[in-house]
Write a structure and sequence with these properties.
It is a single chain. Helix 1 links the parallel strand 1 and strand 2. The protein has a single domain, classed as 3-Layer(aba) Sandwich (Rossmann fold). By secondary structure, the protein is an alpha/beta fold. It is globular and about 40 Å long. A 4-stranded parallel β-sheet has the order 2-1-3-4, covered by helices on one side.
Length: 141
């Protein structure tokens, strides 16, 4: 790294499930790797929900990650354009007009799913976030 901040974006339609899980895992990964001063994390949705999905809050709490107080928010194209890479969650209705590297992770939507399915999605999200950090910053030590 050259001392510049790397901005990672995690975006979906409602910002109430997959992108919230991704953000939480990215924050943990950033801390684990000592990159707090080098990585900025951006999250949002094109049509934010009123709150993070209950099943997501419950499933993340199982592994000690509290999302209960997180609030879905809207993301703007200018905010996305400031990112180095944006991960979308597989939202086919999400069309980014941003001029930025976009990765579509094609993850299933946890909204309304049973806890076992949400756990599976959580594991996929965690693996994707870890792989993204490995790609951008090298393997964790």
């Amino acid at each position: 790294m050259t001392g510049e901040t790397t901005k990672l974006g995690f975006i979906c339609v409602q910002n109430a499930g997959r992108s919230q899980m991704s953000t939480a895992f990215a924050e943990r990964e950033r801390e684990r790797r000592g990159l707090e001063d080098e990585v900025e994390i951006v999250t949002g949705g094109t049509h934010p929900a009123d709150s993070v999905h209950d099943e997501v809050v419950e499933t993340m709490a199982e592994i000690g990650m509290d999302l209960a107080d997180r609030q879905p928010r809207e993301i703007s194209t200018p905010a996305l354009n400031e990112c180095d890479v944006v991960a979308t969650m597989g939202c086919s209705t999400l069309e980014l007009e941003a001029d930025v590297e976009v990765r579509d992770w094609a993850l299933p939507d946890p909204d309304g799913q049973d806890q076992e399915r949400v756990r599976e999605i959580r594991e996929q999200v965690e693996a994707r976030v870890s792989a993204l950090f490995d790609e951008w910053f090298g393997p964790a030590e």
